[in-house]
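It would be a great kindness if you could assist me with a short task in structural biology. I am sending you one protein, given as its amino acid sequence and as whole-number tokens for its backbone shapes. I would ask you to consider whether the tokens describe a fold that such a sequence might reasonably adopt. The full record is reproduced below for your convenience.
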Amino acid sequence: MAQEKHIALGVMQIAASQASGICSFRRAYNEIPNYVKLSTTNSAPSQTRPGEVMWQQIVRNIKSHDKASGNFISDGYLVHVPKTGYAITPSGRRYLKAKGLHP
């Protein structure tokens, strides 16, 4: 099952591939399946967000959990762009490069 860290890594990859450095929520919802192996559990309907599946809720949880250790915002790899999505930081680009994932 893909966890928040996997989804956030996909968001970072998408953001890094954009000239703006931003991964919008809409783009994340369209492209995450190209970056992250999702399980049937990830694809189950969200119990708290009607119309979303669990992995889409996890995209929004990146911001909700931004104070938690290991969160990609907390770690300085992403910043939340209100009502838009997430922007990759220079530190996030270095992280992707170190992992061999920078586009």
Summary: The longest strand covers residues 78-81. The helical segments are 4-16, 25-35, 54-64, 90-98. The first helix runs from residue 4 to 16. The mean pLDDT is 96.
